[in-house]
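One example copied in:
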Amino acid sequence: MRRRKRLPSQLAADLGVSHATVIRWLSGDDVPNCRSCNRLAEYAGVSLDMVLSVAGHIPRVAEARLPEWPEFREYACQKYPNELDEDLITMIEDLIERRRQKRYKTREDS
């Protein structure tokens, strides 16, 4: 949600579940069912196994993580405070997200 700058109500609408359901997931009072896990995996661009393991439906899956990088907006504001305005940063974030989705889809197709 943070990466896409979405509110819980917007995530709920995107996934086709109620706002209350998302709030229960976020508070830890409930976990997504398998169908919702599938939607969450597609939405987040991660493997279904990863979401199912985080939700507790299957044993924990070791996550192949990329090196921990700061969020682009934070990095850009620190590194280039005078060169990049908000519109450029938003555009670059969108391009990064598209690249991530393309890379994930390529891995799925292989």
Q: What stands out?
A: The chain is about 60% helix and 0% strand. The mean pLDDT is 81.
